[in-house]
Structure prediction request, 369 residues.
Amino acid sequence: MPRIVAGRFRSLDEAETVLREGHAEMVSMARAHIADAHLVRKTLEGRPEDVRPCIACNQGCGVNAGRVGRIGCTGNPVTGVEVNFTEGNIPKTSAPKRVLVVGGGPAGLEAARTASLVGHHVVLAEAAPKLGGQAYAASRAPTLHIFGDLLQWLETQVYQQGVEVRLGAYLTAEDVREIAPDAVIVATGAEARLDGYQLANPGETVAGCDLPHVISAEDLMTARTPPAGASALVLDTTGGYAALAACEQLLNQGKAVTLVTHLDIPSPDGGKRSTVALDRFLGKDFTQLTRSYLAEIKPGECLVRPLHGTQLRAVKADVVVLITQNRPRRDLYDELADEFSVTLVGDALLPRDMQYAIRDGHFAARELA
Prediction:
């Protein structure tokens, strides 16, 4: 009986292996073609490295499809809008400009890649010693290493197209003035708010946020050594998958973990990935306190209160991870807005997720034609 197999197949080589070993007669590669509709052509042309990888996040093709009513893709900004935009119809400029992209996260990488395809001379400046921004931190979380595949593809494309990449280059407004570009794309991202701001109680401050054991999710993922202690509390006010990723990181470090969120369920925006993560937590020292908020942080413990009630609950917490709405880094844009043709993209414009960041960078670069 003929068989068809479906799963996360990303390359023709992977599909070919299934066929050659006789496991099936046909392989379904839906998400791979959502990420790059030209997968087959690029491979047959001997350019498999140019195939944009699917990172199996299900964000654009699953979660966001239900929100906006059409399919999308985290890595491919033209998925779902192919009637007007494709990789093949990126406009070519007749007057090349010197374009400066500040920030080497997903938004900045995509902006630099696309601006180069338009025909501009592009300089990409990143303050950190490595490209990737917050997405690099995310790729270090349990089960999310595949995020690094998309970052590697973007980085490879940027270098392949001759973009001048400057790492460890923190640019001030004065530095930009010295470079004197024709256009600037500011993709400086956002920074974690560690002030305990919570949507459920926006006017209430949380005492203890300045204690040394209070960190961000990015701090947790990029730390060389695990934080000290046997217990942890993760506060989530965003509803994304970051909270469960932080919880799993801490659980894998042997800590007892408590997740506190004002939401009805943990990480609803993570879709099926969140459900699968919670299944992995079964049998581990994991507690979820939903419809609750953080009232106070103390050394070694936190006080948690239900949304509707006054009963305080003490929770052991040698480390506290705050995952709240980030603060955009837009100071450079504000300083340059009256002097240059400057565009603000990604989390520097509005903290969201990687799909929006890449889309911002792509279309900002298209408009420079």
Notes: The mean pLDDT is 95. The domain at 214-323 is CATH 3.50.50.60 (FAD/NAD(P)-binding domain). Residues 195 and 307 are 19 Å apart (CA to CA). Residues 147-160 form the longest helix (14 residues).
